[in-house]
Amino acid sequence: MPSSLLDSPIVPTVPFDEDGVHHGFLRLPYSRDDSAWGSVMIPITVIRHGIGPCALLTGGNHGDEYEGPVVLQELALSLSASSITGCIIIVPALNYPAFRAATRTSPLDQGNMNRSFPGRANGTVTEKIADFFTQVLVPKADVVLDFHAGGKTLDFIPLAAVHVLEDKTQQAACVAAMLAFNAPYSMLMLEIDSVGMYDTTVEEQGKVFVSTELGGGGTATARSINIARKGVNNLLKHAGILDGAPELQDTIELEMPDDDCFVFSEHEGLIEPLVDLGGEVEQGEMLARVWPVDRTGVEPVNYRALRSGILTTRHYPGLIKVGDCLAVVSVPVN
Ligand code: ZN
After folding, report:
1. In angstroms, rounded to a whole number, what is the distance separating the alpha carbons of residues 63 and 96?
2. What pLDDT is recorded for position 260?
3. I need a labelling partner for 96 at 20 to 30 A (CA). Which of 26, 39, 185, 304 fits?
4. Do 310 and 174 belong to one domain?
5. Is pLDDT at 258 greater than 80 in this prediction?
6. In the predicted model, what is the mean pLDDT of residues 3-22?
7. How far is the centre of ligand 1, averaged over its atoms, from the C-alpha of 58 (Å)?
């Protein structure tokens, strides 16, 4: 029997079909040396009131990205059932073991949640969580928001993102939701390697899907949290789950048409940024220099933009390794 037909071992401690605010856990049995019949307890809040659309809101898909967990904790605490129409399912830390370890991937099985979908009911802890979302939570949702940032190794201009999809009606609904989220930048992405992504699973189920990249460096800022907070409230208004109209400011629309957006390091060394995030660059313009770490008297290596655009992403730590993503340059649409 394919694993997708197996029942998930995950047991929710909250109801999905009762009105009210329910705080609880997704309990995932995890037998180990320090707890023979132990469990991974993934916090979840389900808020339901009447008949209406359902939003599934997640943070911590990668465990070292923090805007999502912060604003989803706040939302779970502050929303009353009577303030919504429909349903909101909130999971602040999708890869909960990674979130607790402050790492991108799970310390239990090295699972990168966003490369583990659609998951397996009889797989690793990470695959079991992915499978539960694929089989149980995503099918309940009309609109899905997954918060990301750059984590410890990347930093981003604050953006909401959707993918180029074959179904143009679905793509238009995703773009409308992204523009309602109203981050300072809005990105239409052509995904280079979409296999295993939560995004792909959600989109294949025909849902409206928005993700974000709101900063990075393994922390959050007051600014990035404010963008996340406004964005999730706007999206819930756009979906008709919260009353009122989204609060909209200007957003700069961007796209990443091909591989030339990415610059990867072919050297190990000490990185000297020459352009900051949000800066405009011309094709061939220097983005950074990489200095040797083991000697003096040697010229640095120059890294240049492969196309004109806006510096969207940069390597965050001061030292860089061979193969690391050094920069991403994306292209304003208008
Ligand atoms: Zn991420």
Report:
1. 7
2. 94
3. 185
4. no
5. yes
6. 89
7. 11
